[in-house]
């Protein structure tokens, strides 16, 4: 068996490491594995799009794309800002669906959310839009679990589920907040209908989301990899419906006797959705300590539709049965078993199984030779054939999340883009510059006044830097 051509393309990254190129190679991958943590960089290319925060600060985002299993990344640039203006939390991807990517940037302890479109309006060029806060204000809006739903015709909605305690009946009530890119406004639904069995209610009460998926044309799912999927259906009706999809009952147990996970569940499981088919994978290790090489494990995949009563088992693959072509020895000698003289991928220790967004049997996993290594390997296993399909080295820096990367399909939506990035973006006129007043007890030198002076200086400097950036 020859090594898959994709396994030797890890050096063909498009971006600053490729002679600071400002244009992309012809064509785009249908999908990518995108690092969730952004880099701070003023490099730009044909994917670059800009907009402004409410305060007028310019924000530019660019994507540096390679074929999977190599890992793509994105970069953020804020002209005029210095390193200490950014929070300790780097710009971070929240979710991606269809042509759209939702990410956040924290500046001066203020969190800003943006939606990037690979085929913006007008002209089909990439675009970037700030996600405004609802009015009236929603408590803890910036920390909500957002979902992103493509709506066709280059439109999308962003949604989150808000709960509110009602003392009249001593119960929580749930409402969907939906932002439309067409109206540029938020709308709160009437109280959502809870359609939960007693067992589902117990799971729902303990639900803790780790990722979001789109299910069909009008449903969003928030995934808890320990328990199941909180499904918000009929999103555009006056009263959306909340149901719950438990995970398979015979999945691997990764919790202690008190029900708490020994490690982050992302180390063992993943869920994705292709159209309306939900796919689930879990890894069962023979020993409790998964963070060690030489471990025996089995990966099992499942799928189901919302209308089904249960999950269907697809395949189970034992790591000991995964065939490895001898050609991989030169790429990673540590795979060699000195006793059997065979290549074995269990010589790596594995984290983060990731399912393909395509309708195939490929499983992506991140492995390392040693836990402290800065270099990891994205390993692609064909579950149906029990064979190593590809192996690519990647840097684990930067990485802010438990799961380093996620599959995204937005590159296949790019249209009509050229290496130039267009004209400077105008300030969002839907919001006015906030007018604050200094405290009467601490005028002139107050913290608020100093921040305003600093922002004014940044704004002026940012305009100069932005003009230079845009050329």
UniProtKB/TrEMBL annotation:
Residues 425-434 have a biased composition (Basic and acidic residues). Residues 449-458 have a biased composition (Basic residues). It holds the Pfam family DUF1618. Residues 222-364 form the DUF1618 domain. Residues 425-471 are annotated as: Disordered. PANTHER family: EXPRESSED PROTEIN, EXPRESSED PROTEIN-RELATED. This is DUF1618 domain-containing protein.
